[in-house]
Write a structure and sequence with these properties.
5-stranded parallel β-sheet; 198 residues; globular; disordered C terminus; alpha/beta; 14 strands
Amino acid sequence: MTSGRRSVRRGRRPLGLLAAAALGVATLVAHPAAAHTAPTTRTVPAAKGTTYYVDSRSGDDGAPGTSAAGAWRSLDRVGRTTFRAGDRILLNAGGSWKGQLWPKGSGERNRPIVIGGYGTGPKPRVRGEGTVDDAVRLFNQEYWEIRDLDISNEAPATGTPGENLRDLRGIHVSGDNARRLDHFCATTPSPRRSPTRA
């Protein structure tokens, strides 16, 4: 999916947006081997908001989350926070989380909330593994950008044909109340770019 603005009228099925989100997810996980080995390629620039850090290995949900040394650990901690325009949520390169990433809040025009990575190493992974309907969820929210992550939501095979087939999504953006929602973007970098540090 390319950068740009998407609009959805609540109360209708956002098929175009869901299709676009599905394409973005396909882009993010189309080459699983590369996704696990490709380095995080950039640090997302701040837009006069707060930067929050999440580290699946050494983070602490009791920490402030506003520095790499005081990073949060879990997706649940991110999901309990309402973010504001210009904020960034950065997941540590090489980190892996199982479950759902559903941060709250909305950005504004020219000040989206950005989810991305920091550090050097493989892209941060958010894996639904069929335990949730959506690995990343945004509902009645707007002005969000998701960059440089490996997002998947495939239920493991069970040995019974078809048992792991359900309506599972990597990224799901939806809304209601017949209100327009703007600006959703999911991107992954070119593998030719060189990594940078936070």
